[in-house]
Write a structure and sequence with these properties.
By secondary structure, this protein is α+β, with helices and mostly antiparallel strands. Bound molecules: ligand 2P0.
């Protein structure tokens, strides 16, 4: 009987070359193209506590103090994937008891700040420890990918590359650390939150709709694949000018295929667009027009501006008059998930419910 209470912390990642479009929709989340991202530090994080117990009559999942339905036919796709993962990892371990999962984000969920990535990575990390599975990074990455594609990158710290892979079973589609945090530790992601609410079209629906209907999408796949190599070169050489340009072009390219989806998907709002113009103005005002910052947007309107410590103040000045910015988070690269001490548990062990219920 395994009744350890384990808490893990994981952080989101921001893709510099994006994952958009899958080749499998049955729960493997294998992508059409490779992608590369920066794992964020613990400024934004998800904490997840798990406990297996014979006192539970079914698996229970609480996210931000609210119980999620993971049983029956009418559950969301994400809940279904979480349930399948619980079943798969429990089977691998031989443990029979049900599990209670309590997960909390310290930032807005579902608003394009990759809460599903940090959430899935924290869950896999905690389960691996509680079930004593001793999975390596590759196995953890594949397991996280099955809950949410981009989560396979949050299993590692620093700059992380997700290789597209080609096997039907997804066994060669996993992430790896490309550069550790120390290589270019001055890199920073400034996250301008312009709308903390949940996005209007979920990523899962968007991935499928774009691949099915966008005529531009077929050009995106080779463009993104080339982009990954360019990002690797730019980071290797600490070339902020190239890095910024490639990041911005990739984000714009992905959002163009979203707009070209039928019916169209538009994640950017007026504040997002104003930020785009401000960053271009800032870059154009530099000597030789060398870029010192690059914007990128996930499936939401919030801007991620990649720059270095040296240029942080200039970026803040450029954003000063943008209407609609509610908050700016700043994050360096993070080192990836970790297990937290026992006293950080989110679970009330007497009631087997969250300490903080909504
Ligand atoms: C990314 N995004 O690479 C891209 C950029 C959003 C835009 O990965 O269906 O939540 O769970 O595999 O990972 C968001 O998609 O999609 C995403 P699922 P996910 O970060």
């Amino acid at each position: 009987m395994n009744s350890k209470v384990i808490t893990a912390l994981a952080t989101p990642n921001i893709a510099m070359i994006k994952y958009w479009g899958k080749r499998d929709y049955t729960g493997l989340n294998t992508p059409n193209n490779s992608s590369i991202s920066m794992t964020l530090d613990e400024t934004l994080n998800t904490k997840t506590t798990v406990m297996f117990s014979d006192k539970l009559d079914s698996d229970k999942l609480y996210i931000n103090g609210v119980e999620e339905n993971i049983h029956g036919d009418n559950v969301s796709e994400k809940s279904k994937y979480i349930k399948n993962t619980l079943i798969e990892m429990r089977k691998l371990s031989g443990v029979k008891e049900n599990v209670v999962v309590v997960s909390e984000n310290n930032f807005p969920s579902g608003a394009g700040i990759a809460s599903s990535a940090s959430g899935a990575a924290a869950l896999i990390y905690a389960l691996n420890e509680a079930l004593e599975l001793k999975m390596d990074g590759k196995q953890l990455s594949i397991m996280a990918r099955k809950i949410s594609g981009s989560a396979c990158r949050s299993v590692f710290g620093g700059i992380v590359k997700w290789n597209v892979g080609s096997h039907d079973d997804g066994s060669d589609s996993f992430a790896e650390m490309a550069f550790d945090v120390q290589h270019w530790k001055e890199l920073i992601d400034m996250i301008a939150v312009v709308d903390p609410d949940t996005k209007k079209v979920s990523s899962s629906i968007g991935h499928e709709a774009t691949v099915r209907t966008s005529v531009l999408y077929k050009n995106r796949v080779p463009f993104a694949e080339e982009g990954v190599t360019k990002i690797e070169d730019a980071i290797k050489n600490k070339d902020l000018d190239s890095l910024s340009k490639v990041i911005m072009r990739d984000s714009n390219n992905m959002h163009a295929t979203m707009l070209d989806t039928w019916p169209p998907i538009m994640y950017l709002n007026d504040s997002s667009k104003e930020i785009v113009y401000k960053i271009h103005q800032l870059n154009d005002s530099q000597q030789d027009k060398k870029c010192i910052a690059g914007y990128t947007f996930d499936a939401g309107p919030n801007a991620h501006i990649i720059t270095t410590d040296e240029h942080k103040e200039e970026v803040l000045t450029a954003l000063k008059d943008v209407q609609g910015i509610k908050k700016i988070f700043e994050s360096h690269q993070g080192v990836g998930p970790r297990i937290l001490p026992e006293n950080e548990s989110l679970l009330d062990e007497n009631t087997l419910t969250p300490k903080k219920m909504k």
